[in-house]
Specification:
With 169 residues, this protein is of the alpha+beta class. The protein has four helices and nine strands, in the order ββαββββαβββαα.
Length: 169
């Protein structure tokens, strides 16, 4: 069942100023909307990274952090993040809010991200069951391994992940 997903449009202080359909929010240079980005570490201090599915509208096949999405209207960021972890990766866990930042990034002539993004971190050591509609592949990597890979070729990684890596880790 597909449905028109409504995203929360916000001002620079994260106050809701409206709602709009997901695709329309990402067209052109995008409209500022509330989002979240999750970093899941295991007990060996490895980060769960995902390769985005090939049929994603923006940054298909790119590597990124554990999970990213948008809260639904009336849903708080942490609850939304726990819901998306379950939907995309087959588990949920406690999450800590690390902070938020605003960024925009253009993907070719297709569209853009323009987000007030809340960054969350959690710990998990169990089985991961990626949803193949969202995720092509996953890996557990240390931050050192990721930073070496990024230094060699940052073009395979999503722009928000690169910014969050620098800003929060």
């Amino acid at each position: 069942v597909t449905f028109m997903e409504e995203l929360i449009l916000v001002d620079s202080e994260d106050r809701e100023i409206g709602r709009a359909e997901k695709v329309s929010v990402h067209l052109g240079s995008g409209h500022l909307h509330r989002a979240f980005s999750i970093f899941i570490f295991d007990d060996q201090e490895r980060l769960l990274v995902q390769q985005r599915a090939q049929d994603k509208m923006l940054w298909p096949g790119f590597w990124s952090n554990s999970c990213c999405s948008h809260p639904r209207p009336g849903e708080d960021v942490v609850s939304a993040a726990q819901r998306r972890l379950q939907e995309e990766l087959g588990f949920s866990c406690q999450l800590e809010h690390l902070g938020s930042f605003i960024y925009s990034a253009q993907f070719n002539d297709i569209g853009a991200e323009n987000e007030l993004c809340h960054v969350l971190m959690g710990r998990y050591n169990g089985e991961v069951k990626p949803d193949s509609a969202e995720i092509q592949d996953i890996q557990w990597l240390t931050l050192d391994e990721i930073k070496k890979m990024v230094a060699q070729d940052s073009s395979k990684w999503t722009p928000w992940f690169l910014m969050e890596l620098e800003k929060f880790f």
